[in-house]
């Protein structure tokens, strides 16, 4: 019998075909191993490059980039900048202002966007009176006035639901820092922003005879404290309300969810903390609180995942050591909200007892 057979292309000897089986099986196995090793090397290489970019490259860029540092501290991504948006907001019965402030160079004037939101019962009167005089009612009113400092990553429109509750008791004055909302841009440094805030307070003080309170949230709590500390004898401020305040920027960097994952790096201090301090980003609330002459109310939720509540505890302890009258110390309070309520960093105003503590 013929020991040869035909395939589709050429004559093959059965014995030769049988002898080639091992080599046919061996070649794909070797190729698979080579491919596997190559893929592993590529993945490892990409992981190393990713690590170097995220944990070495980015901190180094941050160290030498003032613009990047400003973006981290004064976050403004996705915020409205259109003046029409703020002039025609859905909040009922408010007046839009643009307050002039002189920059630290004493040459440049910036205009900051500001809302005057009427108390609820006055808003009802204003609704039916197109010629209602907002300035006159602010000057002579039975209501106290509350100046609101918003946090970073927000503009004055973000807290409109909070204003709706606050206006049951106050004229609410909400403004945007330079570069936020429809406020004109300027160099975003701590000293510059606080200088603006001092002028906004004086602008308000000249327009009302009513008691003035200041409420600051998160970064706004620090800016509010720094502002009050710069006022002569605190300019007759009636009270300071600090919501989710942090002790200092350096302390906060080790706990903030966007930054804390870098704190284990040996070069974290030299590439992140120290450059911020060098450029004046201190936000040392503990230091400034010593100069506040009025009663302070600290509000903090225990489930706050951005600013840990023990920072308000530390600030409260520092505030009780101030050289002020006994009644001021007695009226300085710390209120911590149970984590089970779920108020977190932004929603303390929703608790029904919040305004009980204020009033």
TrEMBL record:
UniProt xrefs under PANTHER family: ALPHA/BETA HYDROLASE DOMAIN-CONTAINING PROTEIN (PTHR12277), FI04476P (PTHR12277:SF194)
KW Acetylation (keyword) present: no
GO MF terms, alphabetically ordered: monoacylglycerol lipase activity; phosphatidylcholine lysophospholipase activity
Protein name from the UniProt record: Serine aminopeptidase S33 domain-containing protein
TM region(s), chain numbering: 37-62
Keyword Metal-binding: no
Name of one Pfam family that matches: Hydrolase_4
One GO biological process term: monoacylglycerol catabolic process
Domain named Serine aminopeptidase S33: residues: 145-273
Keyword annotations from UniProtKB, A to Z: Membrane, Transmembrane, Transmembrane helix
GO cellular component: endoplasmic reticulum membrane
InterPro entries in the cross-refs: AB_hydrolase_fold, Hydrolase_4
């Amino acid at each position: 019998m013929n020991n040869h057979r035909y395939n589709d292309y050429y004559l093959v000897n059965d014995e030769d075909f049988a002898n080639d089986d091992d080599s046919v099986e061996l070649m794909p196995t070797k190729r698979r191993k080579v491919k596997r090793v190559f893929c592993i090397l590529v993945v490892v290489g990409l992981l190393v490059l990713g690590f170097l970019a995220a944990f070495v490259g980015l901190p180094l860029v941050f160290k030498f980039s003032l613009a990047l540092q400003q973006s981290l501290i004064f976050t403004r991504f996705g915020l409205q900048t259109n003046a029409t948006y703020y002039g025609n907001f859905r909040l009922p019965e408010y007046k839009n202002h643009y307050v002039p402030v002189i920059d630290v160079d004493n040459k440049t004037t910036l205009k900051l966007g500001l809302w005057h939101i009427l108390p609820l019962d006055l808003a009802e009167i204003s609704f039916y009176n197109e010629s209602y005089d907002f300035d006159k009612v602010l000057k002579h009113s039975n209501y106290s006035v509350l100046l609101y400092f918003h946090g970073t990553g927000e503009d004055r429109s973000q807290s409109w639901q909070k204003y709706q509750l606050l206006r049951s008791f106050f004229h609410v004055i909400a403004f945007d820092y330079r570069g936020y909302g429809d406020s004109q841009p300027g160099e975003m440094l701590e000293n510059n922003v606080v200088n603006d805030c001092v002028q906004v307070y004086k602008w308000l003080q000249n327009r009302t005879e009513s008691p003035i309170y200041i409420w600051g949230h998160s970064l706004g709590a620090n800016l509010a404290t720094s502002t009050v500390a710069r006022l002569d004898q605190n300019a007759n401020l009636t009270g300071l309300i600090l919501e989710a305040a942090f002790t200092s920027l350096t302390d906060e960097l080790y706990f903030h969810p966007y930054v804390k994952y870098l704190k284990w790096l040996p070069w974290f201090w030299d590439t992140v903390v120290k450059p911020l301090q060098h450029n004046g980003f201190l936000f040392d609330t503990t230091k400034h609180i010593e100069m506040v002459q009025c009663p302070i109310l600290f509000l903090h939720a225990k489930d706050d995942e951005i600013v840990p509540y023990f920072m308000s505890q530390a600030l409260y302890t520092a505030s009780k050591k101030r050289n002020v009258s006994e009644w001021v110390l007695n009226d300085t309070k710390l209120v911590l909200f149970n984590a089970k309520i779920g108020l977190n960093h932004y929603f303390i105003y929703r608790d029904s007892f919040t305004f009980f503590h204020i009033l």
